[in-house]
## 1
Amino acid sequence: MTDKYCVIGNPIAHSKSPEIHPVYAAQTGQDLVYERCLAPLDGFEATVHRLVAEGYRGANVTLPFKIEAARVCTRLEERARAAGAVNTLIFANGEIVGDNTDGPGLVADITRNAGVAIEDKRVLLLGAGGAARGALLPLVGQGPREIVIANRTVATAEALARDFSGHGVPITASGFGEVDGSFDIVINATSSSIAGDLPPVAPTVFGPDTLALDMMYGNQPTVFMDFATRHGATVRDGLGMLVEQAAEAFAIWRGVRPETATVMKKMRP
């Protein structure tokens, strides 16, 4: 029997995940289908239980349900516990297991696709919401020299820094306007690009060797990417992160890791 998977969100028509997973399945000889699933804003939990009853093997979770997904699970993997959010569900042995592959996808895109090592680098993380939280544990695991979390509400960034302070990497918090010096890697984990806005950081955070990555992706560079480019940085959007987090989820579900370069070329010829 063909195994069934889907991505749950609201809205969901824009999701590129159903274009990615069939390529991974063909590449690895896996028999599965992968669909979009629109869940009512007040009906996420009911949707998950329906999918389990209908024999689905797992699901990805996108906005706005990632935090709610953590509450639906019977068990959370360490990455999901640290993130406080779930983007990958595994339905097996009567359990709903939650994982978070966003951070590993980000790290894989930076280190493998962009060819930039995170170890011993100065990293600026813009934003202190769910996207930033999901990225922190995998980023810390790469051994950066320092991580600075900048956010409009400094107290939120300070709380996030405290939560991840016990891993041997200095993590500090700052307001956007108080960020000091330039960084090797600048990651925009805010939602500002959706509205065409820009986190109000000084252009001095960028240098000629800076990699600036926006977690958002689209057909055109984001405002953040344009700003970073104008001030000398090399830029990436979040498409590589999307492709890599999908590969991580696929490996969790199927026990085989797909090759991502083919999908990157297909998504952006």
Note: The chain has a mean pLDDT of 95.
## 2
Amino acid sequence: MKLSTQLQYGDDPVANAESVVGLEKAGLDVVWVAEAYSYDAVSLMGYLAARTERVEIGSGILPIYSRTPTLTAMSAAGLDALSNGRAILGLGASGPQVIEGFHGVPYDKPITRTREIIDICRKVWRRERLEHDGLYPIPLPEGRGTGLGKPLKLINHPKRANIPIWVAALGDKNVEMTAELAEGWLPHVLVPEKIRDVFGPALDAGFAKRAPELGPLQITGGGILALEPEMWEPARQLARGMYALYIGGMGARGKNFYNTVMRRQGWADAAQEVQDLYLDGKKEEAAAALPDEFIEKATLIGEPAFVRERIAALQEAGVTHLHVNAVTADAPKIFGQVKEWIS
């Protein structure tokens, strides 16, 4: 089992990135760099490549709408070269609020787009002369543009032609596509006891079409981590605030993927209440409305023996990468402890 974490948001990206240097020494295996509407992920990943030696550096995630597929492939290849083969390309659709509200791009056909982007990226990394039909016609056909485009291949010889691609997926069709095509899956709020019930059929449908050379699907799971008693309550409050944001506020009524997953995991009434409160501007009440059982099962907060039991449940459910965000005054110590448990 590998150990991963998320690079924290903040106005001082250098300080945030520098913290990864200490975590790498403590045993961190993968750091994920988000890109919502903060600083771009690629710049930070390049800095991390220069400051670290062993840790894998993943985009968690690059929105599929904000770049051309070929630029996504070029960026991943460049990062892989700079990091000596440590890049992971994490892709995701983000959501309409960010894509249409911040990027000004229509949010349409996310699954088809993801499938085509994966295909294009792998063609670029294999240095094929790029030709593609579909939502992304390459080169542009007659009648579009100047007509001067011609198939090209990447000038550089990539460090790897098989840079791992992970996909953030929650809906059944997207999870199925991920299980079919990607090296890894980035779910959200993974309760190990519910994985088979919620995602099993979609995963199985994808596995039935999966190419053997992709190997087993890698999966992240975990949550906010706190082992020291004085950190338990702050960690729970942090978890409540974060989950209320996603389950209540990330989307509109009837179109919130995180809310849907909570419903499918068995907390339908609570999901409705949290969303209603959050969208009415009652954010603290929404956080308080999250069931204690949900917080307990979706986080890693408590005595070491309890946390180790939850880690074992995640591993039993198929999680390959324990993904944690630690609430502690000594992150390297806590990461080192957890790394010992999972090694």
Note: The CA atoms of residues 250 and 256 lie 6 Å apart.
